[in-house]
Specification:
With 204 residues, the chain is of the alpha+beta class. The protein is 19% helix and 41% strand.
């Protein structure tokens, strides 16, 4: 498996609110590249390509970060580690890139996506999800972008646990216990009343 996506950024010099604000005014997002070796490099990324890259890779897929330092370019495999957004505009204000060693395992929080309609729900049950993500251990290029959880065969009283997830061959969950991720349960009177109230509000 190879890396097929690259984001081009430039090394930056200024620190603090003033320089960062001036970068954002030019649609450049300040950030930091945290190298696997421990070195930290301040960078600036073009806003639109960065947003498109994030939409494509999220926090789980490795891509190449090409850093231009006054014409000298270096390429590093990275993950997007942390992002900061404007409080009310859909814009990034800061980005952290985490350098990875492709031959070493890492721990990543990978989102769960529930697919299908449980048999038990069609019979009057209620699906309850307990986890939105799972922490996985594996090499960077083998890490899935998301984990699909097929709930189609769940009847009332059935539960899927972390051990039931279908993961890539060399990727495993990091957990202290085999916790539940989703169940189909018998609706309680309280949840039935909430459902009736919601239906009444929708009809009014």
């Amino acid at each position: 498996m190879s890396i097929d996506k690259t984001l081009n950024v430039e090394k930056r010099e200024g620190r603090g609110k003033g320089p960062s604000g001036r970068l954002r005014a030019k649609d450049l997002i300040p950030g930091v590249y945290y190298a696997a070796s421990g070195e930290n490099i301040m960078v600036q990324a073009p806003a639109l390509p960065l947003e498109k890259m994030y939409e494509s890779v999220g926090h789980t897929t490795v891509f190449n970060l090409e850093i231009d330092d006054n014409g000298k370019k270096e390429v590093h495999p990275v993950l997007i580690w942390q992002i900061q957004r404007h409080p009310y505009k859909k814009k990034f204000t800061h980005i952290d890139f985490y350098g990875v060693d492709l031959d070493k395992e890492i721990k990543v929080e990978v989102p769960l996506e529930y697919v299908g309609s449980p048999k038990g729900v069609k019979m009057g049950g209620k699906m309850e999800t307990y986890r939105e993500w799972v922490r996985l251990l594996g090499k960077p290029l083998e890490m899935p972008q998301k984990v699909l959880v097929d709930v189609s065969d769940l009847n009332i009283g059935d539960t899927l646990h972390i051990s039931d997830l279908k993961l890539p061959e060399n990727v495993k969950p990091v957990h202290a216990q085999d916790y539940a991720v989703v169940s189909v349960v018998i609706p309680t009177e309280e949840s039935e009343e909430e459902g009736a109230e919601g239906a009444a509000e929708a009809a009014s």
